[in-house]
Amino acid sequence: MKTSAVVFAYHNIGVTGIECLLQAGVEIKLVVTHQDDPDENIWFGSVAELANRHRIPVITPDNPNQADVIKHIADLQPQWFFSFYYRHMLSPELLAIPPRGAYNLHGSLLPKYRGRAPVNWAVLHGEATTGVSLHQMVEKPDAGSLIDQQAVAILPNDTAHDVFLKLTPAAKTLLDRCLPLLLTGNIEPKPLDLAQGSYFGGRKPEHGRIDWNQSAWTIHNLVRAVAPPYPGAFFDSSGRRFFLLGSHYSGETAVHSGKVCIYWADSTDGGGRAIAEDGHFYADCADNKRFRIEQLSCDGIALDHSAFKAMTGDELLLLND
Which of 45, 120, 128, 299 is the most buried (most CB within 10 A)? Predict the structure, then answer.
């Protein structure tokens, strides 16, 4: 009998997971995915489009744990479940269906960063490493025994988007390595020690608000954790909303000691002469360090030096008055 599965999937990782299963010779009887949210920035690949190209049936239930969905899936008699970046928890009734088990690919090195938005949380906390983990699915989220992991580096100026783009090929490497062993029963799951990790919830746009009492490194981590295609880091000043949509940290000392502020600084050549057309915004922070702002906007308008000065009436936007 050919190996069969029902796949719950979304996002680039979902596309990659389905492609790896097909390459491994798995018959996918059904793909369960999400309808795209019109209010979400859809920058990633479409699981539904991939499934349609392979003539795999697709459903997009608002709740996969409804009785009719459970019956439909049970009637297909799949041997396996696989979940690749699917956003709903599966009920015990669903998880009991496949006799060979249910397995999820999670975007962290479990047991660290269990739960939602693991890449964003890892960048926010200044981690130097993250990865993908294939594990057994149980009722508790991201708590089942581990099958295998693949690590990737987080560089000091990587955004969450940069890291996510690293995870997609890492997922392929992981699945190409462990699927043949898993499908033939030649890999032994290892229980997770949940005490060595933490669970994190989902993130909302309001979580991007900047606290200027924090260090330059901490604020930089927030900026890059929520940089586009995510909503961005922001603060309010004089009734206006400013967004920092990118940053670069190199441990430089602040220019305006004792002040927390945003300002424009021209780059200089080797002789110390200003190169006006190559300047940047900078933020001096409470720890007397600064970071470069790659893009600053106000009320939806991208700012350059002249627009910033005209808007603020000064060369400095003070943030600790």
Answer: 120
